Amino acid sequence: MEKKICIVGLGYIGLPTAVMFANHNVRVHGVDVNEKAISMIQQKQLHIEENGLQERLENAIDQGLLTVSTEPVEADVFIIAVPSPINPDKTANLEYVRKATASVVPYLQEGNLVILESTVPPKTVEDVMLPEIVKSGLIIGEQVYVSHSPERVIPGRIFEELVNNDRIVGGVNEISAIKTKELYEVFVKGEIHLTDATTAELVKVMENTYRDVNIAFANELAKLAEKIDVNIWEAIKFANFHPRVNIHSPGPGVGGHCIAVDPWFLVELSPEHAEIIHKSRMTNDGMPAYTAKKAWSILEAKGQTNAKVAVLGLAFKGNVDDMRESPSTEVIHELEALGLHVVSYDPHIKENQHPTQTQYLHEAASEADLLLVLTDHNEFKEMNPTSVMDVMHTKHILDTKNCMNREEWSKAGFAFYALGDSKNKPME
Ligand code: SAJ
Q: Where is the domain boundary, 204, 219, 239?
């Protein structure tokens, strides 16, 4: 393919997408405001962790198909993949999207296509992007094509999902959508469904909101199960044998930059019509405090209110290096507020990301009274109790992700507790 693509935003979505196109013989120029990230990428180093990214990045650069800098260049297609976070008052912050769009306007030429990949509140293309693009003097939909093609990939499996997931493409007009579809067909094997930009925006936000509401439901069930001595993990497993039931998993909270954020876009749209969505957000946001309280109760029952807690997991979910909106931060904050001493450990998180952090499991566990598992990293699932039991002060473990081997830890003499389960509580 002769086309050249300029991708603005080289984060968790932009960089893998850039590398993916380049590995399919498309010339790509990547842009980011983060100079450190740019110089790392130039040296074929990663500033983010993703399976399969390193070798694909090396290949793209070695083949001369990927260049990066802090400024856009002329291209046939511009893809915008920048953050769309929420402000402290939970309203959408669309400044990155607006600025990224404005940054490509001076480079736009007749026939170009501009695609927004970032997840945004419905109407962002219309209300935020088009007013910038119109400044190019090109007629939108005729001389410059615009669309929204939300990414739908899950961190950790991005290269698989970029290829195999179906994609939704919403154009400002039909020709914009068709041109976008033709572009992604370079590597997408899933189906590409065409619609208008606002529908595509809503679809993406709905998907993540569905997950948030479903997780809130699971969290509510977990709390209820604890009242009646039922193991919620077992109950959910059984319920999910029903062909039309798919209950998600409870946990210490919902993190990441998507699921804990996107539902607010719908709440902002019309609060009085988004009651379940709003309530679910609050339920999930309440889980870190619930988890901390549960940890505290376990220790309090043993008279250990001045205890040390070894937190296992700072990442927002298993096997990723991403701490954005991680519930662990909030859980630790709550534990400290309850007067507990916390040392945290996460093999996926680089040094100095959290004041309580150590790079050594041994140091976290040393003299600890409770192991609190907040993230289902493979390293934790495979952990042998003997690696920590001798250095701990008292052998308690609280598993909030149902990822630890209860039998093995119990056999090693640990009192094993789980979120959503008071059925199997240790005998007093
Ligand atoms: N979580 C639970 N219970 C569950 C599932 C997840 O507590 O049953 C928690 C996780 O531990 C984590 C958070 O929710 O803290 C979010 O994790 P996730 O794996 O559900 O989602 P993300 O944020 O990594 O990726 C989501 C995906 N969306 C959907 O699955 C609908 C992904 O496809 C999107 O591309 C991504 O958001 C995004 O960028 O929007």
A: 204
